[in-house]
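User: I'm curious what two different proteins look like when written out as structure tokens. Can you demonstrate?

Assistant: Sure. I'll show them one after the other, since each token string lines up with its own sequence. Here's the first protein:
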Amino acid sequence: MDINPEIIGLLGGFLSCITFVPQIFKTWKSKSVQDISVHTFMIVLASTIIWIGYGVLKDSISVILTNIVVFMTAVIMLWMKWKFGGKEV
């Protein structure tokens, strides 16, 4: 059986992409950002930028696409932290 590694990468990447989705919905619904760590999401942003660069160098669409989505979910979380947390950020 010949399986394209990009398929496995996309499957794993999809799961990575949805990692923050439950937190985004919970935070949006509750408007509570007290326990959201800015440092965690800053690390996520840095790591996804590095992974996107790696994906470009390796010409890996699964790495590029999934990390763009993870980057965006981290940006959404940081935006909600700023919007609902006022000066907490």
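Here's a second, unrelated protein for contrast:
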Amino acid sequence: MYRLLNRRRRTVAALVTAVVSGSVLAAVPASAAIGGPGLGDPYFPDDGNSGYDVSHYDVRISYDPAHTDRLDGDTTVTARALTRLDRFSLDLKGFTVASVKVNGAPAKAFSRAGAHELVVTPARPVAKGSTFEVRVEYAGRPDPEGWHTLETGGANVAGEPHSATSWYPSNDHPSDKATFALTATVPDGWTAIGNGLPGPESVKDGRRTFRWFENRPMATYLSTVAIDRFTVHRGRTAAGTPVITAYSPDAVIDAEAEAQQTEILDFLAAKFGPYPFSSAGAIVVGASKDPGNGPLALETQSRPTYGSMLFDASMVHENTHQWFGDSVSFKDWRDGCVAECFAQYAGQLWEEHKGADLDQGYYRSEVEEYRDDPSFWSVKLYDPGPGKELDGALYFKGSLMLHALRRTVGDEAFFRTLRTWTRDHAYGNASFRQFETLAAKVSGKDLKGFFAAWADGTVIPPHKYLYPGTLAR
């Protein structure tokens, strides 16, 4: 996620490891009830649901911008039961649920619990190891935590760590990734943009239906839909990946910035490995009716969401997330550095590509500015603490750490580590601890002290870790 942080008024970008075709699911904590709410994330213990592993979402919505208080939804969740399920939960915030069916049969019972639980009792228990479908029909006002209405009359979805529950029932935790199909029906003249590649459109009774499909596993907070009277541009990267860029009527269309988007994607692919998804591009939305609600930009999978306009720093950050955070997602919210540290440092790589001296013009000047500011160094990069999962330290301190690591192990080992990481954990989940292990293995160096000082430390690192290699002084 790219944010505006108030430091020198600068703009900043703010145990299962096996990858399967559908998703990667974190181990269910012993303390969690089977089939119950919550996967036991240390920061968000009620997020997600135990007892099953989602492989696919088929989300069908109908929305009329003239009636912003109502969204009609019909979502089918396909999952595999990890144990016998006499009862299970989905995450859904708000809405009136009209019906729930499990494998085509009406549920024996369903009810609401807690802040966002839809508790389902199937007519017959779901057998362990079986694949099952849950179809939920619902309607009502989307929750503004993730669903944002625009001044143009349109709407879009963006939010981290939560947004999915504002518009469809889900297993809302990054450790349970799934493929995603979206069918969105809106009045003719409006356009719906989603993740992945577009499917066929159809028109009936003055309403147009748009279809989108993301064929790679996706964390729920990365799913999106945007509805507006969009201007849509299409192109391709050098590798042939389709690039679809949509602009709200009040967004700035900058041809030079749009051309730079493909240049950035090609640059990042050269650094991190092949672009991981079937499509790329951007959703550029205009002013929100609630400007304080929602991030400036978010790495919605395959097609990041931006506010008002495209510019290079934000495009570099959000598109880096396609590798770091989207394709390789974190296991739980302690691991935000897996996404934000790398996305922020990519901005420095882009500046270097344009001719900047990172040692002097970036690293040393930053360290000197914050040397005597204990608050800058006090937040840990791994497990920063509840409420700090997206703390500015992951952007600023995390970026400095990666440059120091690069100078510690050398360019060849550093970039080989990044490419190995994105290849070996593609479409899955991994922790920052695993990155530490990989960096040591690839470089052949003992990095325990380095990561203890940078990732786990709460004070400025010792001189030998602060000024390694060409940073020595």
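A detail about the second structure: The chain is about 25% helix and 25% strand.
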